[in-house]
Amino acid sequence: MVRGPVASFSVWDYVVFVGTVLGAAGIGLFQAIRGRKNTSSDEFLLGGRQMTAVPVAMSLTASFMSGITVIGTPAEAYRFGAAFWIFGISYAIMSIITAEIFVPLFYRLGITSTYEYLEMRFNKLIRVIGTTMYIIQTVNIHCVNGSVLVCVSVTGLNLWGVLVATGVVCIIYCTLGGLKAVIWTDVFQMVIMLAGFVAVIARGAVIQGGLGKIWDDCYQGGRLNLFDFDPDPLKRHTFWTIVVGGSVMWASIYSINQSQVQRYISCKTLTQAKLSLYVNMIGLWVTVSLAVFSGLTMYSIYKNCDPLTNGDVGALDQLLPYLVMDILAAYPGVPGLFVAAAYSGTLSTVSSSINALVAVTVEDFIRPMYKNLTDKQVTWMNMGLSVFFGFLCIGMAAIASLMGSILQAALSIFGMISGPLLGLYLLGMFWRTANSTGGLTGLIVGLVITLWVGIGAQIYPPLADKTNPLPISVAGCNRTQDLNYTTLAPWTSAVTMTPLDRPALADSWYSLSYLYFCLLGTLVTVIVGLVVSAITGGCKQEKLSSDLFVRRSDLFCAGCGKDSEFNIVEKDVEKVTKM
Prior knowledge:
By secondary structure, the protein is mainly α.
């Protein structure tokens, strides 16, 4: 079994791929035509707050199933084993926290931008800082999504053609159709992504002689050792890093990230909003299971001839596209389906980000400065910003070809920025004594700490004894020995460092599991915020509205309060802020 170059895209693969692109654009145009009579900002950004749970849940899952997930998770399972399955527990914890704590509060306040809450609870400066952090985070994530497109270029698909197609399609349906177009396009894209995973698993099972053979190969190769209860926080993936750190990280994404929040606050009732998160949880379980099993299938096929070590691919994240062209090229159109799946993930992420970036820009920057804008002016502004952010996101993706391990890179970026922000929200929602000075100080300190450890981990990546890569073999590639190949870093680097190059912090502080970045930022922000608030007289501040805090009745009480409408509208926002 000597590996080498694989086939490139056939005509039918291009037909399937282009059909997917046109299908996504068609859905967006249909929503634009359908809603052409209602051009209000609320309709554009939140679908008129009339969405139901199931399509919103599928959209939430599709945004999770970004190209990063489609490409990165199978590569993770191939190289490090099936421990990623434990994230199913994290998804459940995240869903409960988001649905029972954050949704009732945001729904009660009737916000459009998540960061409106920060001004209501603290002050305008903190709101602007929070919005800016979100924009920086989102733009950086699109660099990682650009790496996804680089990875699928192993199929022979033209990278620049894909980038241009992504930009044009997203700009069209985001500009014309707004959030409704994004949500319904996500539903279509989710089906495509799941079909891509199923195609890989089904063909792999045929080649290997059944799912049982794949499972047995992975057991023999040590890929099924899921539960490592070592409490060492420096180990990359253990039960505790995934369940504790992973839960906090995903809670920060679903609870306060505008791209996600904007979806579920578009639901027409509080019950629907909560239900969307629980249905999404089931979708996440299905998605991660298919993604991990795709990686295990890949290991079963390549257990004796690793394409990466053999030089057939240049990066770990190119393995799944390589596999697709290796085992599915004989079936015209099927490789096109897989690449369409990875592409759909990227398309979903870009489109949701465009819509969210427009929302925070209008609500947090433009409307506070220009209070007399008409609905027509805001509508044109929404559409113009959609075009601008569309080109910005694609431009950032185009310069991302140097990125490597995309899955960990994406989650690390989320952890470094979302952690301090989550801590700021929790500080405001649970502690009445927290004031603006404490909140701002805690946010800055938390961000400095997470950037310190995150950037340090990029420069001095953890060694193999902390990342625990599993053995791979090239015995079937006419080689005589097994290799213990290790990826070097959260962002794969071509630089090899010897122990003499590493400072003392490299094997302690900088080796902290990337899943703890978010938890670290959250804890530092809350603790520093409480201490500084106490020092600066937080207990003496004027009384705040109870609407700004988590209520006991919010917890597991989907039918409490006015379930059919938002309790606070824009003109009443001032009533819940500090006087």
